[in-house]
UniProtKB/TrEMBL annotation:
Source organism: Physcomitrium patens (Spreading-leaved earth moss)
SUPFAM superfamilies xrefs: ALDH-like (SSF53720)
Enzyme Commission code: 1.2.1.9
GO molecular function, a single term: lactaldehyde dehydrogenase (NAD+) activity
UniProt record similarity statement: Belongs to the aldehyde dehydrogenase family.
Keyword Repeat included in the entry's annotation: no
Main location: cytoplasm
Ranges for domain Aldehyde dehydrogenase: 27-483
Keywords (A to Z) from UniProt: Cytoplasm, NADP, Oxidoreductase
Catalysed conversion reaction: D-glyceraldehyde 3-phosphate + NADP(+) + H2O = (2R)-3-phosphoglycerate + NADPH + 2 H(+)
UniProt cross-references to InterPro entries, sorted A to Z: Ald_DH/histidinol_DH, Ald_DH_C, Ald_DH_CS_CYS, Ald_DH_N, Aldehyde_DH_dom, ALDH-related_metabolic_enz
Keyword NADP: yes
Name of the gene encoding the protein in the UniProt record: LOC112276110
Protein name: NADP-dependent glyceraldehyde-3-phosphate dehydrogenase
Recorded GO CC terms: cytoplasm
Length: 496
């Protein structure tokens, strides 16, 4: 049960506490935020609605703790992260249960998210040792007009306080994907968990707490993003913002000050199927890549552009495989579970009705019960339909039949989103040429889009993001360079 046993200290009656100064606390606001279970539509959990003063105090504590943490030997920082990872994996069941109840993630996928997060934390510790143990040594005479009388030592130093804002669909994994790189790089972290997913995130933070990090180094401030978000993203004590979510990120990037931004936003991942594709492979990847977690992944297949000569065969394979998808509750490990909120379900329904009104072909009947939407493949989609361009974040996939490969590439590149895409073809030369022409952050060849494995560079172009994630790139962007120049009294050359 969430908030029991190992986790009992994080719950105060029926409201989960927030975490600051190394302690679990009750907000002075006396208010809480309810978290609705997407499956039951009833309030499942409550978290603290923190105040402006509590935000300010968390940032101040982070600034103080970061000074100590930056002087902590790198190997000790890595050791603390390995302890965090082990505790997280050892106590994954309650976190998985919280994921099931607050974001309707199928139980098996919820467990996977927690284990994957432990692995991400450990890899961040190891990668941080590799990256941050090295600096750069430059000599002056490599630049015209200079003799060898200056040595420059360049090293990576922490930014200070990183504000981590993860989204509802991976409230643990996309939190630690920010926290672990920030910590190994010597930063402090203020975490603003997504409201829908906050309890899972707080359980994860308790594992971090039990790993014995300095008090105040990490805090978890709960409350609606719409109420305390601006206060946090515009706070003068924040030195970096790492955000994953929707176009809220675009608004944040316009408000944030002179701080490095790492943004991973929406996607309209295009699946381009060429005439020589392995259609069985393509169909299997559409099923796994398009409908898992009910399509609520930024890397989900969001539109299929298939050459019309093979479209009938591909569509019939996908339709047939869709009949195997189980629809129901996350507790029963169904493939398709309720989407995260009524507003999300209404948005998806709006896109479907627009397509229907404009003449799209439906291979399944539209069916919705509460937030539960049965999977749809919508065919003969045309550019005038909203679903050709917008991100449903649900179990509905549009099919556009194309006459030329260029038509598919154009559709991919004409979208404001540019996160990932994929191309299915047996010709490796064609795959590379098409991949190069698709202007997205990542193109998968002969597989569905995916962020993992978590050490791969992961980035969105255009409206899909700023900067690059993946463990190595996250560590890099959460540091800055410091140069130390040694000026010798005269030129000196190392003799052979
Ligand atoms: N790229 C990705 O992986 C994801 C993309 N999305 C896209 O975003 C859409 C909406 O999903 P959702 O999770 O609601 O995404 P949001 O962008 O609304 O929320 C993402 C995070 O930002 C927080 N937030 C909200 N408003 C502010 C603010 N003003 N300042 C600072 N933080 C804020 C949210 O907190 P709170 O929950 O309290 O509002 C949450 O933690 C999806 O339909 C999908 O299109 C969603 C999830 C993941
Ligand atoms: O933002 C998301 O939805 C995730 O980055 C997707 O991660 P995944 O490809 O590993 O599911």
């Amino acid at each position: 049960m969430a908030g029991t046993g190992f986790y009992e200290s994080i719950l105060d009656n029926d409201v989960f506490k927030y975490y600051a100064d190394g302690e679990w606390k009750v907000s002075s606001s006396g208010k809480s935020v309810g978290i609705t279970n997407p499956s039951t539509l009833k309030v499942q959990y409550k978290v603290q609605a923190c105040t402006q003063d509590e935000v300010n105090k968390a940032v101040e504590s982070a600034q103080a703790a970061q000074k100590i943490w930056a002087k902590t030997p790198l190997w000790k920082r890595a050791e603390a992260l390995h302890r965090f990872a082990a505790i997280l994996k050892d106590n994954k069941n309650e976190i998985a249960e919280a994921l099931v109840k607050e974001i309707a993630k199928p139980h098996k996928d919820a467990l996977t998210e927690v284990v994957r997060s432990g692995d991400l934390i450990s890899y961040s510790a190891e990668e941080g040792i590799r990256i941050l143990a090295e600096g750069k040594f430059l000599v002056s005479d490599s630049f015209p007009g200079n003799g060898r009388n200056k040595y420059c030592l360049a090293s990576k130093i922490p930014l200070g306080v990183v504000l981590a804002i993860p989204p509802f669909n991976y409230p643990v994994n996309l939190a630690v994907s920010k926290i672990a790189p920030a910590l190994i790089a010597g930063n402090a972290v203020v975490l603003k968990p997504p409201t829908q997913g906050a309890v899972s995130a707080l359980h994860m933070v308790h594992c971090l707490h039990m790993a014995g990090f300095p008090k105040g180094l990490v805090s978890a401030i709960t409350g609606k993003g719409s109420e305390i978000g601006d206060l946090m993203t515009m706070h003068p004590g924040i030195n970096c913002i790492s955000f994953t979510g929707g176009d809220t990120g675009i608004a944040i990037s316009r408000k944030a000050g002179m701080v490095p931004l790492q943004m991973e936003l929406g996607g309209k991942d295009c699946c381009l199927v060429l005439e020589d594709a392995d259609l069985e492979l393509a169909a299997n990847n559409v099923i796994k890549g398009g409908y898992s977690y009910s399509g609520q992944r930024c890397t989900a297949v969001k539109v299929i552009c298939v050459m019309e000569s093979v479209a009938e065969e591909l569509v019939s394979k996908i339709v047939q495989k869709m009949t195997k998808l189980t629809v129901g509750m996350p507790e029963d490990n169904c493939d398709i579970t309720p989407v995260v909120s009524q507003s999300s379900a209404n948005f998806i329904q709006g896109l479907v009705e627009d397509a229907q009104a404009k003449g799209a072909k439906f291979h399944q009947e539209w069916k919705r019960e509460g937030n539960l939407i049965w999977p749809l493949l919508i065919d003969n989609v045309t550019p005038d339909m909203r679903i050709a361009w917008e991100e449903p974040f649900g179990p509905v996939i549009p099919v556009i039949r194309i006459k030329t490969v260029e038509e598919g590439i154009h559709h991919c590149n004409a979208n404001n989103f540019a996160l990932q895409g994929c191309v299915f073809t047996k010709d490796i030369n064609k795959a590379i040429l098409v991949s190069d022409a698709m202007e997205s952050g990542t193109i998968q060849i002969n597989a569905a889009p995916a962020r993992g494995p978590d050490h791969f560079p992961f980035q969105g172009l255009r409206d899909s993001g700023i900067g690059s994630q993946g463990i190595t790139n996250s560590i890099q962007m959460m540091t800055k360079t410091k140069s130390t120049v040694i000026n010798l009294p005269r030129k000196s050359y190392t003799m052979g």
